[in-house]
Design a protein that fits this description.
The chain is mainly α. It is 73% helix and 0% strand. The chain is globular, with a radius of gyration of 21 Å.
Amino acid sequence: MRTSNTPFQPVGAEADPSADMTTTALSTAAPASKRKIISWAMWDWGTQPFNTVITTFVFSVYITSASFGSENQTSQSLAISTTIAGLFIALLAPVLGQNSDRRGSKLKNLRNLTWALAVISASLFVVRPEPGYLWVGLVLLGVGSIIGEIAGVNYNALLDDVATEKNVGRVSGFGWGMGYLGGIVVLLLIYFLFIKPEVGLFGVTGEDGMDIRVTMIVCGVWILLFTLPTFLNLKDRPRTNVTQVTGVVDSYKELGRSVARIWRASPHTIYFLLASALFRDGLAGVFAFGAVIAAGTFGFTAGEVIIFGAAANIVAGLSTMAFGMLDDRIGPKRVILISLVALVVLGIAIFVFHDGGATVFWICGMLMTMFVGPAQSASRTFLARLIPQGRAGEIFGLYATTGRVVSFMSPAAFGLAIGLGAAVTGQENTQYWGILGIVLVLFAGLLVMIPVKEHQDTIA
């Protein structure tokens, strides 16, 4: 997709001769060295334990296990805490994103947030397998999610420092892929060192949940260690126009003005933000609740969930890198649509054939992981291709905000679908109905995304 030197115009409208001439940050970017690209991607590798181990395959399964309450109770509690965390992210992202641009401190902010994420991850060690610790674990998990998401705003904003128009799809896909592959390594590490053996490294056993709790410390150390290349080899760009940091009220006023400018220049960009908000929430739901369903519905043990997660990350990592190259050829919208159609079909298949046992989940789950990463990466590149120089933090902050404004939908739909299943079937465990809630959110995002046009101009 090419860019031009004029702001987006609504379909059929003539350019306003008085409009500011803008160019995208990617169109003016110089090619980065392989060292810088790899260093940027190492942040995704380094922080992946929070996404893979904590929120998906290990801690989320642990916190929704019978030690903390019934399957329905713990699953719905997880949905509530995820919803609340999403609301906080929506409130904070635009403020912090704008101020990051004003200060020219994207990398500094990223470093501080990353260290905080490492501390939160390690602190999950205190969560013992008792009902009284359910909300302790969920609160820590929610705080970590907030920190991780705000850090992601700054990380995404660095994309124009390491990519150009010609390779942004490949670079973005490489970053996502590195994250998935990092997830494989850390999952296998903790599985074979702590969870699988009756007596693991340092004499760790499963008593009092110690095998799971110790892995939380491993995650914290991993995050600190493997993100070091990012902070050693990348630097914030010098800013000659650093402006005063604004408060919450002024930041939201500026956010409103920014949305109005984008709407006047390019309504389809707003349509994309709405569509991506929906389908990204559905994609998050696939990973947030997939392992929970594997354990609670399909009877996977903790070890089997980890093995599944490792295999899923291999598939996801390779497919995301491959689709990244496809992104540069056919454009991000087509990658997104292909991925969403496949995910809706496969999600329905898991619900319909859930009586087929673990084999059904292995087949459909593996296929689903092929499409989650490509949709996420292509969504990021769709927006990155439009952002003017010096506004990455603001726009990706808006991107995070629009996503989190509706972030209650996936966990809420998951929880409501479980309740609906219980009312309809009268069964005690209707957790598998939750997949229908996630599919509904994905389908809504697909419908809104279909009419969105890939523009050839920049955000005004």
